[in-house]
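Deliverable D2.4 — example input (C-alpha cells):
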C-alpha cells in the first residue's frame, strides 16, 4: 500500500525493520504479532537464517513464540536484500550505535544503513530512527545520508526519531505497555510517527517538539538509571561501614513521597553491564563537552559503577582471607556470567572483571551460566564453562552468584558439594534475611553488596 500511514482508519502499513539485533527482532515480532506485515532486513546472513527458522539467538522470553506465530501467519520474514525496504510504508532503523573509548558515537553501522536506504527509499515513506544517538544525529547525519542527493527529508519522505527504552528479559511485554516517545523533523513527520506507533504497538505515544528532544529522552532515562544505581552502590559501601543491611535502608528510604511519586533508590549490585547503561551516559558527557558544557554526574556515575566488579572481587578475597584461605589455593565458582538475571547477554558484563581480578590474585575460577552461549562465555573469559552447578561448585571455597537466573532460584545449598565452610557472595540475588539465616545454619558464610 502507498497510503499515508498517518491516515486514521486507513490500511495497515507495511513495515521494514533495518537491523535485526535484539531490538530489531523483538520489535519486528511484536508488530507482526499485532497483524502488520513486517520484513526484517540485515546484512548478517547467519542471523537472517536463524530468524527465518524461528531460532533467534537472543534468549528473550516470548520472542521465539511471537516470531513463530507471525511467520506461520505469513506476516513476518527476514532478508539480506536491502531493496525490500522499497515496498514498505514505514522503515524503522534499529542498527547498533556503540560508543568509542572517548564517548564518541561509533557510527559505522548507522552510516552504512542510511547510505543503503538512500538508494532504496521512495517518496511518501516514513523513516523512523530508533537507535540511540547523540542529540542532533537524526537531523545532521541521518537526514543527509537518506536524501542521497535525490530526495528531501520533510518534502519527499517523512523523518522521525523514537528512542528505544526496552529492558532485556521483559522486552516483549514492555513493547505492549511502555509509552512511546516521538519527535519529528516537522509536524507532518511527527503526526505520521504518532499514528504509526499507536497502530503498530497499541500504546500511548508522547510527541516532542523536535528530533533533538526525542533523542535526549533516551539519554535522560539511562543517565538517571545509571546515577541511581551508582547512588545505591555507594550507599551499599557506606552501610557496610556500620554493618547495616542496605536493602533495609533502601526500603525505608523509598517509603517517602517525593514529587509525583516516591523516593526510588534502586538496588546495588556487582556492576552495571549491557549495551545501554554503559554507553549512554558517556554519550551525554561527550555531546555536552563538544558544546562547551562539562557534565560531571554522567562521568561520576559511570566511574562508580565501573568500579563495582573490583569491589565485588575484593569482598570475595577478603572473605577467603577471613576463613584462613589463601587465594592462590582457593576455588571460586561464579554462577551467572550474563550482565543481568535471566538474560544471555554478555555485553559489558561485570562478571568479566570480577573473574579477571580473582584470577590475577591466583584464584581458580570456574563459571556456569545455563542461559548464555557456552562458546561466547569461553571466548569472553578464556575459561571453559562448567555444564552444571554441581560441576562448578565442587570443592569450591566460594559460590559467587552474579546473575540469579531462574535455574539458580531453587539451589539446594544443603547438598552442594562445596568445601566447608563456604562463602556465598550475593552479587545480584538479593536473598531475603530468612534465606541468609538458613545459609548460616547450613554452615555457609554470607556476604552481599552492602549486606
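Example output (designed residues):
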Amino acid at each position: 500500500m502507498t497510503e499515508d500511514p498517518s491516515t486514521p482508519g486507513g490500511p495497515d502499513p507495511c513495515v521494514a525493520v533495518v537491523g535485526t539485533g535484539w531490538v530489531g527482532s523483538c520489535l519486528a515480532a511484536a508488530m507482526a504479532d499485532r497483524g502488520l506485515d513486517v520484513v526484517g532486513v540485515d546484512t548478517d546472513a547467519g542471523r537472517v537464517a536463524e530468524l527465518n527458522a524461528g531460532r533467534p539467538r537472543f534468549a528473550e522470553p516470548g520472542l521465539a513464540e511471537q516470531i513463530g506465530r507471525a511467520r506461520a501467519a505469513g506476516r513476518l520474514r527476514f532478508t539480506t536484500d536491502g531493496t525490500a525496504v522499497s515496498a514498505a510504508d514505514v522503515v524503522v532503523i534499529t542498527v547498533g550505535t556503540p560508543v568509542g573509548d572517548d564517548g564518541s558515537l561509533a557510527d559505522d553501522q548507522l552510516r552504512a544503513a542510511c547510505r543503503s536506504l538512500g538508494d532504496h527509499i521512495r517518496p511518501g515513506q516514513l523513516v523512523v530512527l530508533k537507535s540511540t544517538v547523540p542529540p542532533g544525529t537524526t537531523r545532521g547525519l541521518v537526514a543527509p545520508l537518506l536524501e542521497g542527493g535525490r530526495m528531501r527529508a520533510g518534502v519527499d519522505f517523512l523523518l522521525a526519531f523514537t528512542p528505544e527504552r526496552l529492558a532485556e528479559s521483559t522486552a516483549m511485554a514492555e513493547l505492549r505497555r511502555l509509552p512511546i516517545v516521538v519527535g519529528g523533523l516537522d509536524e507532518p513527520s511527527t503526526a505520521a510517527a504518532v499514528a504509526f506507533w499507536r497502530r503498530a504497538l497499541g500504546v500511548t505515544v508522547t510527541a516532542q517538539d523536535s528530533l533533538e528532544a526525542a533523542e535526549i529522552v533516551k539519554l535522560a532515562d539511562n543517565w538517571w538509571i545509571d546515577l541511581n544505581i551508582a547512588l545505591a552502590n555507594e550507599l551499599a559501601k557506606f552501610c557496610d561501614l556500620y554493618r547495616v543491611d542496605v536493602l533495609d535502608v533502601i526500603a525505608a528510604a523509598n517509603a517517602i513521597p517525593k514529587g509525583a511519586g516516591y523516593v526510588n533508590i534502586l538496588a546495588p549490585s556487582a556492576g552495571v553491564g549491557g549495551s545501554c547503561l554503559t554507553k549512554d551516559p558517556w554519550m551525554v558527557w561527550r555531546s555536552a563537552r563538544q558544546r562547551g558544557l562539562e557534565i560531571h554526574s554522567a562521568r561520576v556515575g559511570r566511574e562508580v559503577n565501573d568500579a563495582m566488579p573490583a569491589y565485588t572481587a575484593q569482598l570475595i578475597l577478603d572473605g577467603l582471607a577471613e576463613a584462613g584461605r589463601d587465594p592462590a589455593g582457593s576455588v571460586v565458582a561464579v554462577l551467572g556470567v550474563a550482565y543481568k538475571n535471566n538474560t544471555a547477554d554478555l555485553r559489558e558484563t561485570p562478571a568479566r572483571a570480577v573473574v579477571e581480578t580473582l584470577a590475577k590474585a591466583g584464584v581458580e575460577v570456574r563459571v556456569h551460566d545455563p542461559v548464555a552461549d557456552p562458546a561466547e562465555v569461553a571466548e569472553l573469559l578464556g575459561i571453559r564453562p562448567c555444564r552444571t552447578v554441581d560441576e562448578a561448585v565442587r570443592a569450591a571455597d566460594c559460590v559467587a552468584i552474579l546473575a540469579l537466573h531462574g535455574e539458580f532460584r531453587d539451589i539446594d545449598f544443603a547438598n552442594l558439594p562445596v568445601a566447608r565452610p563456604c562463602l556465598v557472595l550475593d552479587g545480584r540475588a538479593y536473598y531475603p534475611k530468612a534465606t541468609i539465616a538458613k545459609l548460616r545454619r547450613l554452615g555457609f558464610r554470607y556476604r552481599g553488596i552492602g549486606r
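DSSP finds 16 helices and 15 strands in the chain.
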